Amino acid sequence: MGSQRNSGKQKINQVKASWTPENHELFIDLCLEQISIGNKPGTHLTKNGWNNLLGSFHSITGIKYERIQLKNHWDMTKKNWKIWHDLVSTEWLKWDPVERSFGATEQEWDQYIRENPDAAQFRSKELLFADKLDIVFGGAEDYGVRKRRNCGARKISCYTRAEPISVVRKHNNYPGNNTYMHVEEEPMVGNGNDAVESRSGVTVQSPPHKLSYSIEECIKGLDSIEELEQGCELYLFGLDIFLKKEYREIFLNLKKSSTRIAWLERLQSSNSLPLN
Prior knowledge:
The chain is mostly helical. It contains eleven helices and six strands. A hairpin with a 5-residue loop joins strand 5 and strand 6. The protein is globular and about 65 Å long. Residues 18-112 form the Myb/SANT-like domain.
C-alpha cells in the first residue's frame, strides 16, 4: 500500500511534458551530442547517455522531466521519422530534395494514405529537423550513403568519432541562460560574378573568374563548405572523385553548398569512383 501511495504521489508531482519546436530541437541536439561521444552503441542511448541527456535538458531549460518522459518522446519521434523516411524513399510520391516538395498527384496521395494512414500528417508539411533525425535514428554509416532528402543548412560530421558536437546557438527563451546549442548557417558560395560598387556610385559587374577545373580549385571549394567536416567520409570521397576532370567540372559549376553536398552523396551512394 505504501509503495502504491508513493507511486501515485510521484505521478502527481511529475511535470507534464510540453514539446515546443525549440524544446524538441534541443532534445534532438542533446541526442546528437550523446551519439557523438559514443553513448548510442546500438538502437538506443546507454544509461549514461540518458542520464547526461536528462541533466543537460534540465540545466538548459529549467524543466525537470523524468527519464520515461524523454524515452516516450524518443519513441514518438522515431515513429514519425520512420513514417517520413518511407515517404521520401518511395518513388511513388516523387520527393524532390532540391525543391523540398513531393510531385505526387492528389490521387496518388489519396491512394498512399489509404494504405498508410499515419502519413497523412505529412501531406502538407515536412518532418521537423529530418536531417538531424537521420543521424539519430538512421545511424552515421547509413546516413552517409543515403540520398540527401533535405538540402537545407546542416552540419555533416563524423559522428563515429569520440568528440562532442560544436555548441554555438543560444536558447534565448530561457532567461539568464548562457548555454549555447548547435546550429549552422549555410555559407554563400560565390559564383565569380559579384557586383561591385565603384567610387562614382555606379554598380559595375566584376569580370568572371575563369576556372581551370584543377584539383586545387576543387579542394578550395570543398573546404569552403562549412557544413562539411574536413576528414569525414564524404570529404575524403570528394578528394577521390576529383581525380576525374568531368567530376571536377560538375562540382565547380554547382554554386550552392547544399547542391554540392547532395551531388557528392549521390555519387557516394552509387559507389562512383574515377576509373584508372
